[in-house]
Amino acid sequence: MIKNPVAWPDGARVAVSFTWDLDADSLLHIMHPTDSYRRVATQSLMRYGPEVAVPRIVEMAKRYGVKMTFYTPGWSVERYPRAIEYILEGGHELAHHGYLHENPNERPPEEELYWLQRASEAIRKASGRKPVGYRAPWFKYSEHTTDFLAQEGFLYDSTLMGDDVPYVLESAKGRIIELPFHWAMDDYPQYIQNDDLNYLMPIKAPNQAMEVWMAEFEAMWEYRGLWVTVWHPFNSGRLARCTHVAHLIEYMQKKGGVWFATSEEIAHHVQKSIDAGTHRPRVDRMPYYREPIPELRRT
Amino acid sequence: MIKNPVAWPDGARVAVSFTWDLDADSLLHIMHPTDSYRRVATQSLMRYGPEVAVPRIVEMAKRYGVKMTFYTPGWSVERYPRAIEYILEGGHELAHHGYLHENPNERPPEEELYWLQRASEAIRKASGRKPVGYRAPWFKYSEHTTDFLAQEGFLYDSTLMGDDVPYVLESAKGRIIELPFHWAMDDYPQYIQNDDLNYLMPIKAPNQAMEVWMAEFEAMWEYRGLWVTVWHPFNSGRLARCTHVAHLIEYMQKKGGVWFATSEEIAHHVQKSIDAGTHRPRVDRMPYYREPIPELRRT
Amino acid sequence: MIKNPVAWPDGARVAVSFTWDLDADSLLHIMHPTDSYRRVATQSLMRYGPEVAVPRIVEMAKRYGVKMTFYTPGWSVERYPRAIEYILEGGHELAHHGYLHENPNERPPEEELYWLQRASEAIRKASGRKPVGYRAPWFKYSEHTTDFLAQEGFLYDSTLMGDDVPYVLESAKGRIIELPFHWAMDDYPQYIQNDDLNYLMPIKAPNQAMEVWMAEFEAMWEYRGLWVTVWHPFNSGRLARCTHVAHLIEYMQKKGGVWFATSEEIAHHVQKSIDAGTHRPRVDRMPYYREPIPELRRT
Amino acid sequence: MIKNPVAWPDGARVAVSFTWDLDADSLLHIMHPTDSYRRVATQSLMRYGPEVAVPRIVEMAKRYGVKMTFYTPGWSVERYPRAIEYILEGGHELAHHGYLHENPNERPPEEELYWLQRASEAIRKASGRKPVGYRAPWFKYSEHTTDFLAQEGFLYDSTLMGDDVPYVLESAKGRIIELPFHWAMDDYPQYIQNDDLNYLMPIKAPNQAMEVWMAEFEAMWEYRGLWVTVWHPFNSGRLARCTHVAHLIEYMQKKGGVWFATSEEIAHHVQKSIDAGTHRPRVDRMPYYREPIPELRRT
User: Fold this and answer.
1) Would residue D194 count as lying in a domain?
2) A177: distance to nearest CA of chain B, Å?
3) Which of A25, A29, A40, A58 is most worth mutating to test chain D (most D CB atoms within 10 A of its CB)?
4) What is the reported pLDDT for A31?
5) Has residue A208 been placed in a domain?
6) Structural domain contains residue C295
7) Cβ atoms within 10 A of the Cβ of B258, count?
């Protein structure tokens, strides 16, 4: 079912990357720029991420010996330094997720680049090292993003959904590795109900949400794919849900054949396999489009 | 429970038609004509259909010896020639699904006809043969559609929801066979969450979605009906979901009494049964209405 | 758990009334007055109600010896005479559901009364008898509705949700019996997805929807309440769903202690019990409010 | 998984507080100030709360010997005196929930204070005592709320979501205890469908909704947290759902290690533990923000 699987290290059948978008309350401010400061309950909901969930997740990851990736807006890096310390001390990866969770699809390219650089610098300041991985806020990867990531020296992106295994994005400015996921791997559709976020789902029990992610895992294990979560500390890191994450890790470890890795480690492995000639990846020339498609003119 | 069942070939209890709407990214362009080119993540999500899912589905269909139907917008036929080759080489049916997934209910009749003809021509060019089957984009079958389909020589439509078995649509211009389905047979309500598509469902696990389609199958099997999916390669063709489609086919084959057929084969069988006088179908005079109902004037 | 249960006939523990809102396509016309005639797919979806589902439901009801109630807009009565014949020949009740499913909460009282009378007349013409029961379209019972129902000689209403057992609505013009239900008893939240109806639910499998109604039934059976569905032929009358309705009736009949009755029969029983002094109902003086509440002036 | 658990009385593993937001129809009036009086069906739905559900809940609570908290808007206290009597006679806590369920985030501070005082007075009149606990209507806790609660002498709030255990909110005007919950503990996402409330969820069966709350309970029991519901009498107090609440209480009592308490009792216990120096709580300086964040200026 998968045409071009990557040979994972040590013969593992699946690469598993627990990745967390640590937005904190950045979203609230960008969505309600004039009165976010008034919306204290949603602030408290989202601050639970860096303040309560991150220490819990880091502790849990340590218990199971698993390294994870935290895609964090630059503003959140600056605002919640203790959470960032937990992440770094735990040996986890800090990756790029915009500066204020701003939407690159609604901004001119020079603004996208400005925020990209500003957030990279925030991560460099906090961790001593520029990020090598990126996930676009709101998944709003733009027609310029590949160019910008390549010229800024990024190794990989994890925003797109075009395959079940890593592939390569190539632009005029260079190449990056894409670590794809898809919407079923996100925890918003399972758990989030909040009118300040303009998002109302019929909240599921953790075991029901886990069925979705387990089904993805079993298939990726069977066919040697890549399993990447898009979870949020304030959401899947809530107590009851986090206990189910722990059970999932236990299940995976018991089943075996799983390579637990940060996104960076996976991207490096793919890059190395390409360089060594042991893997010939799919290469997508980016962007797919530079302007409205001409066929629309008649409509 | 079904008044007027069709006698399916070889005494089968149910006619099963796996039909896929291969929209690719046509929807995105029609929904966001000025800036679809910026929305790369959703492009990648939808391109997964022709690039990853179609080869997978075709391979799976071959494994089980099942022929399927792919309702494909003309633009997608032109844009993704390799996917179309897979479909045709696999012996599957290529059917009509508009040109750019444009909405016929929002357009004057001459535009509906223009796009209908343009997409037919795109399919003819790709396959050497004009399509004989149609499904209206967005299910927006118009008051002129029956006329247009009849005059353009179509054999059947599969957009309407008026019965559990095929019936006949008759207009001033001729007759076509209707292969009805209903919304429960669509995979969007089970699986899709995407703000660019303005569509937010609480994504289900594949086994939960399958319960919906299994219930329809069991009932159609019991009462000798027609089971037609409206699935999308980028959606039900994702890895985990597609493994469940495979299990479903296995289940159906084991159960027996199932006639797996393309929509065209089913329509032909119905037409032949009518011509032979062995089936007297329901005939609906179309359209049901030509103008606003007069009773509304008082309201 | 129920303070004031009604003593049902023959010591039954629960009164069960299968009631169907046979809207047909009235909703579509009232929601899209200028272009409903263009939306053929949704027409076909809703016409399935009178054309396919009603004969099926009537046949099923006959098989189990159960009488049901069909709340039908006057326009639908006029438009689908064969469905009405099925209903009447089956011995079922034809009740009032507006004329074109118009919303009484958005209309002046004289218009509400106009449509109420017009639809009553449509039912009288079709059945030889004015309806005695009412359910407001969209559940939009107005501050005038009790008055109008009382003066028009109605026996009961089944729109409100204020109790688990029948109660009395009293206005200056007289009294009617209220047969309450609540939203969990409606089949739209379980099954409907249709953009023309501006309504998008994640369609459930019939067995999952049945869990909702079964839970209500078990509780009403336990505590001697009233179980009233708000189902729609085009929806719960679809083949797979209808087979589950049949199973539910079988289950109820096997369990015993169930009084299957039309809404009219239940209202008559309650009225008789009140008249005989064997039941002292809750009486609500209507309307609850005649104008905006005064406390709002400060806000 | 919980860093700083509170030692609950008698070595209990979890503090359980059944709290009900007894809005009655206040929401309807605030959402539709000009024509709420016309919307009789939703009035009846919401009046079910004080008229049918509250007596049922109080009786059930008595059966199990559990005390609960009812957050009630002042207007509802005035409007439904018999429900309030039931609550008080049952020994339950009457807490503050705004006056008309007005949104503090959309009002100037002087209005927030006006309604806060007016509702406190309504509760004092009804119960002889000012409320000591608060939950903001719509969860719209403002940047002034801590100040107001502290200066008005409140002991605690239960609106925020920043932790799994109680914590302290400190402002210039004083300190209050926060008893946090989160959206999964609310019963709207599980059960509510009502267009007058502009809220459409795919209503679940009670056993499915209970899975959500049970998962939270099991985790809080395991890690010694706080379990606080945000249920509504008109909603979780409906018959079938309420029978499941009863089963849940039975389950909890059988499992043991549960301290059933009102919110006030929990807040008192926490305060006492702090005063005695046996618990060092997290203290949040409030508000988190006083104005739009400066980083937004560039965006």
Assistant:
1) yes
2) 14
3) A40
4) 97
5) yes
6) no
7) 22
